[in-house]
Structures are given as structure tokens and as C-alpha cells.
Automatic annotation (TrEMBL):
This is GntR family transcriptional regulator. Keywords: DNA-binding, Transcription, Transcription regulation. The lineage of its organism: Bacteria, Bacillati, Actinomycetota, Actinomycetes, Kitasatosporales. Residues 123-142 are annotated as: Disordered. Gene3D superfamilies: Chorismate lyase-like, Winged helix-like DNA-binding domain superfamily/Winged helix DNA-binding domain. Residues 46-113 form the HTH gntR-type domain. It comes from Streptomyces longispororuber. It comes from the Bacteria. GO terms for biological process: negative regulation of DNA-templated transcription.
Length: 288
């Protein structure tokens, strides 16, 4: 390489933003290693948004306090020398990891540490049992989504009892649940004078608990908040959430199905020996 060529490369790097310099450096190192035979792998550059996420995370630690509002996207993109599309990818990843929150009418703020609260009931308990911290909000008959109907074994157009419940911890909503209960699971409900709202929700749960619970199975997946869940959780539609689906088994069939949506920026789920799910800040702080 001639002196002029080296000078051209140096000038190119100096003129580019820090985010691009670090990326080019790693890529050139990988290419150099490949040429001298230290590795036979093809050089794969780190995605720009992923490196930006690391740089932003360091800035959050050193420059911003919990609850502080970040500058707008245009200013942040200009500061780090990236396209706004790249910036959005990095911000979305930080939101998913619980470092940032998007708040209605406020903007993007630095998130507080994840709080520690118990998430689900014990495996041998029905929803609404003693020690259950969920608050019944409403109940009404409705035709469930097709996949829920299949899981419950009900006809596609058959209404079931739907129970909405919410969970609040440390003064903020952390989860919203939709519980589907077939009429066959609560056959005596029609004989109960249960008005709409929380009273009817409690009545459905009370009748459901009369069954002998044979077991539960759960699945956890990452999702995006639907409009109704986002409203209940004070999030924006599309915000990252964790969806815990629980089937309650009785009399050899699915007696009820719960779809509980947790704020991904607040909840960190772990499974203990008993199968219970917990949320905690980190390795030193566990939920009781």
C-alpha cells in the first residue's frame, strides 16, 4: 500500500462519525485475519443498528437519569451520524431489553429497573384463588378467536365467557389478562344473579373453581401489544410484550384458557422448580 493510499484511508475514517469508524475497524480486522490464515470464516460486519444500540446504552448510563426524556429522533440521528431508520431499530431493541419506554403524550424515556412481582398462580390453583393478585375488571359472553376455540374444543361460532383482569404493581399496570371459559365449565352460572363488570367476573371465577383442576400447561412468547392491551398497560400499540398462555385442564379437557400480556419493559420471567413464573430486577433480587 502506498503512502497516498494510507493517507486516503486515514482521512476517510477521520471524517466519518464514530459509529461508522468502529464498524469499519472491526470489518478490516476480520478481513486482515482472514488474509493471514487465522480464520477461514467470511467477514460478517456487525449490523450498524446493533453497534448503535451499544453506544446508546452507554450514553443512557452516563448522561441520562431514569424517567428523563430522550432528544427527538432527528437530533439523535444527527448526533450519532446514522439514518433515522437505523436509529429506530436501535431504540426498538433497547425498548425490548427494558432500557427505554415509549409513553403516550410524553415520548421516549429512560426506563426504571424491572420490578419484582409474582406473575402467575401456583400450578394447583384456579385463577382467582387465594393469594391471586389479579383484579377482575369485566366479564361478558363473546365468540373467541378461532385458535382459542380450537384449544377449548368449542364450535367456531359458540360464545364463551370472557373475563378481563388486570395486575398493578408499584402503582403502575404491569399485565392484562383475558381468560376464556366455555359454558360447559360453569354450567350453574346462569342460575346466579351476576351483573356485568367485576361482579360477573368474580362469579365466573367462583364457578370455575368448583371443578377439580387436573393440571396446567404454559407457553411464553414475545409479541406486540394490541390496541386494547396497550391501553390497559399504558403503552403504545405495537410495544413489546410477553404473552403467557395457560391452559387449565379438568375432566380430561381444556376447562379454561388464559392469555396474560405482560409489559416486556417491566417483566423478566423465570421458571422455578414449582413451575411458577416470577419477575425480578436481576440475579440478586428475586420476587418473594
Amino acid at each position: 500500500m502506498t503512502k497516498d493510499e494510507r493517507g486516503s484511508i486515514v482521512a476517510e475514517i477521520v471524517q466519518e462519525p464514530l459509529i461508522n469508524k468502529a464498524l469499519k475497524s472491526r470489518l478490516r480486522t476480520a478481513i486482515a485475519e482472514d488474509r493471514v490464515g487465522t480464520t477461514q470464516l467470511e467477514p460478517v460486519p456487525e449490523p450498524k443498528y446493533w453497534h448503535l444500540k451499544t453506544v446508546l446504552s452507554e450514553a443512557l448510563d452516563s448522561e441520562f437519569a431514569v424517567g428523563e426524556i430522550l432528544p427527538n429522533e432527528r437530533d439523535l440521528a444527527a448526533r450519532f451520524g446514522v439514518a433515522r431508520a437505523t436509529l429506530r431499530q436501535a431504540l426498538e431493541q433497547l425498548e425490548l431489553e427494558g432500557r427505554l419506554q415509549r409513553r403516550r403524550g410524553v415520548g421516549t424515556t429512560v426506563a426504571p429497573p424491572r420490578m419484582g412481582v409474582a406473575v402467575t398462580t401456583e400450578r394447583g390453583s384456579w385463577p382467582g384463588a387465594a393469594g391471586d393478585d389479579w383484579q377482575p375488571a369485566d366479564s361478558e359472553p363473546a365468540v373467541p378467536p378461532a385458535d382459542v376455540a380450537r384449544a377449548l374444543g368449542t364450535a367456531p361460532d359458540e360464545p364463551v365467557h370472557t373475563v378481563r383482569r388486570t395486575r398493578v404493581s408499584h402503582g403502575q399496570p404491569v399485565a392484562a389478562e383475558l381468560l376464556y371459559v366455555p359454558a360447559a365449565s360453569v354450567p350453574d352460572l346462569t342460575a346466579i344473579d351476576a351483573p356485568a363488570g367485576p361482579a360477573r367476573a368474580r362469579a365466573v371465577l367462583r364457578e370455575l373453581s368448583r371443578l377439580d383442576l387436573e393440571g396446567q400447561d404454559r407457553a411464553v412468547e414475545l409479541g406486540s401489544a394490541r390496541a386494547d392491551d396497550a391501553k390497559a398497560l399504558d403503552r403504545l400499540p405495537g410495544a413489546p410484550v410477553l404473552v403467557v398462555t395457560t391452559r387449565f385442564l379438568a375432566a380430561g379437557r381444556t376447562a379454561a384458557l388464559s392469555m396474560a400480556t405482560y409489559r416486556a419493559d417491566t417483566c423478566r420471567l423465570t421458571f422455578g422448580d414449582e413451575g411458577a413464573v416470577e419477575i425480578h430486577h436481576g440475579p440478586e433480587q428475586r420476587a418473594s
